[in-house]
Design goal:
With 461 residues, the chain is α/β, with parallel strands linked by helices. The chain has two domains: 240 residues, 3-Layer(aba) Sandwich (Rossmann fold); 207 residues, Rossmann fold (3-Layer(aba) Sandwich), CATH 3.40.50.2000. It is 47% helix and 17% strand. A seven-stranded parallel β-sheet has the order 5-4-1-6-7-8-9. Strands 12-11-10-13-14-15 form a six-stranded parallel β-sheet, with helices on both faces. A two-stranded antiparallel ribbon has the order 2-3. α4 packs across α5 and α7 crosses α8. The radius of gyration is 22 Å and the shape is globular. The structure holds 6-O-phosphono-beta-D-fructofuranose. The site of 6-O-phosphono-beta-D-fructofuranose (F6P) has 11 residues, from loops.
């Protein structure tokens, strides 16, 4: 039995089968899992997550070997492939994720046909399996903290079977307006919002997402559920410790050699349609076009982590990024060396080394729940780097006053903002960088997690 239960689709680490057939843990994929794992260091918590890999399915059957899940007791929910596929790929990633980020190309998507409805039943089944796992093992009155859109329907089930539990849900993505939610059938919107209202409270990274949630619930349910704002920050000490690793120093020397005295414009994202990589590249192209003096003076390094390559939209987006960069590099490059270095790979040391060195960090998402890169950059940076930040990132609410604003759809405006950022006087850079570094280190994961847990409550009525 357990007094604190954390529930998320992805667990603290990816469990794989090692070369000798033993189970090994790899660095957790995705934005949420690493922060949550850090938040739970030293906590006696049970973590309920989905068995996603072959190694995790084996661990679900045989038990998770001690030490693979940090300090938590990891319980993996192993569901048949068709349930996982319908819930995770079709509903969570191909539908809810696009809806939450306001990114549907409405002339074509979504297509809510019979197969989609079957997938939604799988999503319900998936959520109920998670809720039942919690219900069976949580102590009387335990605190249950549930994360993200994969698990919106856990609230209603827990409210029905274990009303004694103090529950809270946290959404790490944006939350759309009531109008945008209208893309889904009314009954589905009602079910999702009613289930979210079945938690003791619902948390978001900024007031904008919380207000959207409460307004949508008022419109659909006729009542306003309890909700709160708890922005997540970085673990600055841990980041600096990892960045002091020799692997980062080696990556940093390689980057210095590549820059060869030129300024560094940097970005780091998962390759996701919400991140707005394409308009970032187009803005850089416009800058080089309009201000030729910058052509030999700045290099744009874009480190992009592969993401959700089983979705056609993601594959198409990745390929469009690669083609656009190739075109711009052909136009402005010499000897095969273009001004944009797009690296689609998972290389954490190289990312940290670039964050330390960037003169300008571009974070221009179309919409983002928080965007931790906007905080990690200033915490690590050693050059009084400027943050060029979209107001549609949750992080803007905290950092916007010290950043250079880039409106996500305005390519010309972004080009001008990048130039302004590159030309800011040293004293202004230093003042902004100092403020951003302080704000980026606020609300470290452990503190943030305690704040969430403090909002856990027995569901109303
Ligand atoms: O896009 C952001 C996000 O949806 C987070 O809310 C979540 O932590 C993560 O992505 C999940 O990613 P994945 O599908 O790779 O587990």
């Amino acid at each position: 039995m357990s007094g604190l239960v954390v529930v998320s689709n992805r667990g603290p680490a990816t469990i794989a089968i090692g070369p000798d057939g033993q189970l090994v843990a790899r660095h957790g994929a995705g934005g949420l899992a690493p922060s949550l794992a850090r938040a739970l260091r030293g906590e006696r918590a049970r973590w309920v997550a989905s068995a996603m890999t072959e190694g995790e399915r084996r661990a679900a059957r045989e038990g998770v070997p001690a030490g693979l899940a940090g300090d938590t007791e990891l319980r993996l929910v192993d569901l048949p492939p068709e349930v996982r596929d319908g819930a995770y790929r079709v509903v969570a990633n191909a539908t809810l994720w696009f809806l939450l980020h306001g990114l549907f190309d409405r002339t074509r998507r979504p297509v809510l046909d019979r197969r989609w409805r079957e997938a939604f039943e799988r999503y319900r089944e998936f959520n109920h399996a998670f809720a039942d796992e919690v219900a069976e093992t949580a102590d009387e009155g335990a605190t249950v903290v549930v994360h993200d859109y994969h698990l919106f329907l856990v609230g209603a089930r827990l409210r029905a079977v274990r009303p004694d539990l103090a529950t809270v849900h946290f959404t790490h993505t944006p939350f759309p307006s009531a109008d945008e939610l209208e893309v889904l059938p009314r009954a589905v919107v009602h079910e999702l919002l009613d289930s979210m209202a079945g938690f003791g409270s619902c948390g978001f990274h900024t007031a904008r997402w919380r207000d959207n949630f409460q307004a949508a619930a008022r419109a659909a349910l006729g009542r306003v559920p309890a909700a709160f704002v708890a922005p997540l920050g970085t673990d600055a000490d841990e980041l600096r410790r990892v960045a002091a690793d020799p692997a980062c120093a080696v990556a940093g020397e390689a980057l210095d050699a590549e820059l060869d005295g030129r300024r560094l414009l940097f970005r780091s994202d998962r390759v996701e349609p919400s991140k707005n990589l394409l308009r970032g590249f187009l803005a850089f192209e416009e800058l080089l076009e309009e201000r030729p003096a910058w052509r030999d003076r700045v290099v744009f390094v874009a480190r992009a982590y592969p993401s959700r390559q089983d979705l056609p939209e993601y594959l198409a987006y990745r390929s469009e990024c690669e083609h656009l960069v190739a075109r711009i590099n052909d136009r402005f490059g010499s000897g095969g060396d273009g001004p944009i270095r797009l690296r689609i790979e998972d290389d954490f040391p190289a990312t940290l080394a670039a964050l330390q060195r960037s003169d300008v960090l571009l974070v221009n998402p179309i919409r983002d729940g928080m965007n931790l890169v906007a905080k990690e950059g200033p915490v690590l940076n050693r050059r009084d780097g400027v943050l060029a930040l979209s107001p549609a990132a949750g992080a803007f609410a905290e950092l916007g006053a010290h950043a250079v604003e880039v409106e996500p759809f305005d390519v010309t405006g972004t080009a001008r903002a990048l130039e302004r950022a590159l030309e800011l006087p040293a004293d202004e850079r230093a003042a902004r960088a100092g403020a951003l570094a302080r704000l980026g280190a606020a609300h470290p994961p452990a503190e943030w997690f305690h704040e969430l847990a403090a909002h856990a409550a027995r569901p109303a009525g």
